[in-house]
Design goal:
alpha/beta, two-stranded antiparallel ribbon, 28% helix
Length: 307
């Protein structure tokens, strides 16, 4: 299935990036990655989640996960620029056989921050409104919990002021705001919260509204070249694909064109494909040969290099 013990090898490459087939632990110590030391602007990744039972994509179980993830902190830091960022998606976990949540995710985060001597810049929540009800026993069968429909994305950095620009991720104004900007009328003054709001700041067109740290995205698109390629070639789909919109947000927010984006647990390589579409350089690592090989379907034939 994968290339867990051999020297990391390039599965494919484009003008802007490359997919490396290997375990992340091996790849990040290999000579092929030496040119990237201190050069990466963003490590954006979704490692296997801290679950209490194994999944097909290779998560670790229980407390072993905490130590495994923490070991990557100092490795990741070696590749970052001084003002670089790490953004890690981490799902929720539940105690085996009980309708209560596990603290594995939080313990993993704290261990990672401590081991890497990193600052926690901001917490993001990524909600999937189309996510199936889970945990099924407690939600569907016994009806004693509501469905778990979000993951956390933890934004970290070696510095308190990493490169970031929220002007790059502005959202379109609401119809009410567009009307306000057109009429130039606003009810300024002191609010019940005792905040005093002046009309001038609210009547300035900044090109869009500043987004919140709650992102909503669902992987429900009817047609996707990757999905079609896997179906046509009888290849198993990666079971935990990152929505393009999430990668797009963090890459735009935390990098500029030409910067390097690294994904050590690439899966179907959404990170690399989105980075390429935004004119960023990228490097992805995936241990599963089938996932790594099929992810090339996300790129046009014109962009591919022959290895």
């Amino acid at each position: 299935m994968g290339n867990p013990d051999n020297e990391p090898k390039i599965s494919y490459s484009t003008e802007l990036g490359m997919m490396v087939e290997s375990r992340a632990e091996l790849a990040l110590r290999a000579s092929i990655f030496e040119p990237y030391l201190g050069e990466v602007q963003l490590i954006f990744t979704s490692p296997p989640f801290p679950l209490n039972r194994k999944k097909s994509y290779g998560n670790l179980e229980g407390t072993d996960y905490v130590e495994w993830l923490a070991d990557f902190a100092s490795q990741f830091k070696r590749f970052l620029k001084p003002d670089g960022s790490i953004a890690i998606e981490m799902g929720n976990s539940w105690k085996s056989g009980e309708p209560v949540m596990s603290t594995l995710g939080l313990r993993s985060l704290l261990a990672f921050l401590e081991r890497g001597e990193l600052e926690l810049c901001q917490q993001f929540v990524c909600q999937n409104p189309a996510r199936l009800p889970s945990p099924a026993q407690w939600v569907n069968v016994e009806r004693i919990r509501v469905k778990d429909a979000f993951t956390h994305i933890w934004w970290m950095s070696p510095t308190t002021r990493p490169k970031a620009n929220n002007r790059s991720v502005l959202k379109p104004y609401s119809s009410a705001m567009r009307k306000l900007l057109k009429t130039k009328t606003y009810n300024a003054g002191t609010r019940p919260s005792e905040h005093s709001i002046g009309a001038k700041s609210f009547l300035k067109d900044n090109g869009g509204s500043i987004p919140p740290n709650v992102l909503t995205a669902a992987n429900t698109r009817a047609y996707d070249p990757y999905i079609q390629y896997c179906k046509n070639n009888d290849i198993s789909l990666h079971p935990a694909r990152m929505p393009d919109e999430v990668a797009d947000f963090f890459i735009n927010f935390l990098t500029d064109p030409g910067d390097i984006v690294l994904d050590p647990f690439a899966g179907s390589n959404v990170t690399g494909a989105v980075a390429e579409s935004l004119d960023r350089r990228w490097v992805s690592i995936e241990v599963n040969h089938e996932y790594a090989n099929s992810s090339k379907s996300r790129f046009s034939q014109q962009s591919m290099r022959q290895e």
